[in-house]
């Protein structure tokens, strides 16, 4: 990973971490979301992985247990008091509304807050994974994503053209350029990231949005 790309991803993750205040149960998706844990020092924020662990934490390389991984098959550690359960119980926890916040990566998100994050037309993908269940069951859903794709095209669209993950809209979108709240069929720009201008956000965002930048936030 290039240094610039890493810095962008960590900027997004650090901003997402500000949305988490314990006590709460948080599920981190694959990619940028996994970086959020680096910026949390609240012992009452409990990380959950859908393959069956509540109490996920980082682990030193020399302490890695190859049998202990998250849903993205990355090695993880366990906090004191962590609990293990099977996948069926884990998804029952998600579907039963016991996850307070889910932080997901996306391929696309549209101005109604619907996301596409599991399939690219013409490419073989294993399946939707836990994202569909998290969108239905989590109390709050936050998207963390780069604002544009590798080709420079906007990831924030008027309407997703990849298969959507769920009809449930997300609540908050965080990119390296801005933060958007999702309203009734519209996006509300509430914050610009450091050094970013409103003109830059307008230029790189296909989706329509309302400007509601909070006073004192630049």
Keywords:
218 residues, alpha/beta, Glutaconate Coenzyme A-transferase, 10-stranded mixed sheet, 3-stranded mixed sheet, 4 helices, 13 strands, globular
3D architecture notes:
The structure is a single chain. The chain has 218 residues and is of the alpha/beta class. The protein has a single domain (3-211), classed as Glutaconate Coenzyme A-transferase. It has helices spanning 3-17, 87-95, 131-137, 198-204; strands at 24-28, 45-49, 53-57, 77-84, 101-104, 108-110, 115-116, 140-144, 156-157, 172-174, 178-182, 187-192, 209-211. The strands form two sheets. It has a ten-stranded mixed sheet. α2 (87-95) packs parallel to α3 (131-137). The protein is globular, with a radius of gyration of 17 Å. The two termini are 28 Å apart. The mean pLDDT is 92.
């Amino acid at each position: 990973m290039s240094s610039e790309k890493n810095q962008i991803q960590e900027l997004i993750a650090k901003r997402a971490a500000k949305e988490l205040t314990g006590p709460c149960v948080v599920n981190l998706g694959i990619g940028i979301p996994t970086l959020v844990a680096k910026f949390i020092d609240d012992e009452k924020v409990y990380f959950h992985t859908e393959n069956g662990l509540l109490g996920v934490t980082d682990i030193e390389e020399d302490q890695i247990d190859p049998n202990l991984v998250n849903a993205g098959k990355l090695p993880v550690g366990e906090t004191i008091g962590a609990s293990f359960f099977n996948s069926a119980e884990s998804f029952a926890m998600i579907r039963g509304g016991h996850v307070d916040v889910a932080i997901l990566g996306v391929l696309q998100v549209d101005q109604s807050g619907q996301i596409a994050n599991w399939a690219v037309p013409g490419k073989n993908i294993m399946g939707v994974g836990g994202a569909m269940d998290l969108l239905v069951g989590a109390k709050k859903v936050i998207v963390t994503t780069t604002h544009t794709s590798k080709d420079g095209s906007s990831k924030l669209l008027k309407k997703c053209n990849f298969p959507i993950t769920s009809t449930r809209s997300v609540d908050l979108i965080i990119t390296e350029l801005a933060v958007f709240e999702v309203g009734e069929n519209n996006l509300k720009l509430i914050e610009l990231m450091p050094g970013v201008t409103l003109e830059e956000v307008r230029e790189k965002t296909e989706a329509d949005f309302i400007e509601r930048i909070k006073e004192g936030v630049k």
